[in-house]
Specification:
The chain is of the alpha+beta class. It is built from 6 helices and 13 strands. The radius of gyration is 20 Å and the shape is globular. InterPro entries: Arylamine_N-AcTrfase, Arylamine_NAT_domain_sf, Papain-like_cys_pep_sf.
Length: about 350
């Protein structure tokens, strides 16, 4: 798995060999006996969830140069490693699988796509436009439909003999869809309950929804919008979800079903990993699902705040059945934003190898 400086074949796809696929399965705590499994929805669901429970979304490479993890403990300055960026290709595979670390979408989803192709899945890598007002109701919130740039990568997987294809995203983070969801042209979309009864998601084929008070594009084509259902805390979701059901649909991202070439993904990744205006440069985030937690998630988060001299990352748990739909953090602890304490925590709690 290696990328040349500029890919000569823009739509060439990476597929893991058997040895690398075995190492990947070991990394996500799945047995090597799965290596000979044919592609199916059950297999896709199994490896997708196992991935989310073992491999974190992680922005740390943007804030800590690799050389700073060795030697004396030093303060972490956000964005100080932008020149290094997040590795791609074989370096991303090594970081994720052999070093037991995390990454963000252009490294994680591309690597996960290589694993899926080993099993015989057909996988399209797509660019997605993220919502900038997550968790809000676009019909009532002042932000309305507030979209950011196309700086997220998602995957659509299918297999020979199946008429259906499924969206999977191995690197969204908090609010992550953790089950494959089917693409459909039905105007009602596809709606599923997540890992517990307080999670629900909907995938709809539609033109990019934009608030009427914002500039409208001249030319549009339909794409898919993934929505997350937000309901009052303590309200379980039941199907079907209708306009009379409690809560509202909050958009997460929108994508077109058009494969994005490797060179284009490299460009999008370059912006996300190196530009001082990219959102990931502004915060430290390491987050993954808790294994067996039915959607519970453990996150480490830090962002600069005026007057905050403590400089500590907040570690907290969200989601799962016990949260009953609340995004409020629980089981809170704090870690100093210095390489020594962070290295110790990431090694102990997530198995990072430095």
């Amino acid at each position: 798995m290696s990328y040349p400086t500029y890919p000569p074949d823009a739509f060439a796809q990476t597929t893991l060999n058997r040895q690398d696929a075995a190492a990947y399965l070991d990394r996500i705590n799945l047995p090597a006996s799965l290596l000979d499994s044919p592609p199916s929805l059950e297999l896709l669901s199994t490896v997708f969830l196992a991935h989310l429970e073992q491999i974190p979304k992680d922005t740390s490479p943007l804030h800590v140069p690799e050389s700073h993890w060795s030697g004396p403990s030093t303060p972490v300055n956000l964005g100080s490693a932008l020149a290094d960026g997040m590795p791609l290709g074989s370096r991303a595979f090594d970081r994720i699988v052999h070093e037991h670390k995390g990454a963000f979408c252009f490294a994680i989803n591309a690597t996960f796509a290589g694993l899926l192709r080993f099993f015989g899945f057909t996988v399209s890598e797509l660019g997605a436009r993220s919502c900038r007002s997550l968790g809000n109701d676009p019909l009532t919130h002042a932000d309305g439909w507030y979209w950011g740039t196309v700086t997220h990568e998602v995957l659509v997987a299918g297999w020979e003999g199946s008429a259906d294809r499924y969206l999977v995203d191995a690197a969204w983070g908090p609010g992550n869809l953790a089950l494959p969801i089917k693409l459909t042209t039905d105007p009602a979309g596809e709606t599923i309950i997540g890992l517990n009864e307080f999670e629900a998601y909907r995938l709809v084929l539609e033109e990019l929804p934009i608030s009427p008070n914002r500039a409208q594009p001249l030319d549009v084509i339909p794409g898919y919008t993934l929505y997350r259902r937000i309901a009052p805390v303590g309200t379980p979701h039941t199907l079907p979800i209708t306009p009379n059901s409690p809560g509202y649909w909050s958009p997460t991202f929108h994508f077109h079903l058009s494969s994005v070439g490797l060179s284009d993904l490299m460009m999008l990744h370059h912006f996300s990993a190196t530009h001082d205006l990219a959102s990931f440069t502004a915060f430290w985030l390491v987050t993954r699902l808790i294994p067996g937690g039915k959607g519970a998630r453990r996150s480490m988060m830090y962002a600069e705040k005026a007057g905050d001299e403590a400089r500590r990352a907040k570690v907290y748990t969200t989601g799962g059945p016990e949260a009953q739909g609340s995004d409020e953090g629980r089981d809170v602890e704090w870690v100093d934003m210095e390489t020594g304490p962070l290295k110790e925590y990431l090694s102990r709690e997530l198995g990072y190898k430095f």
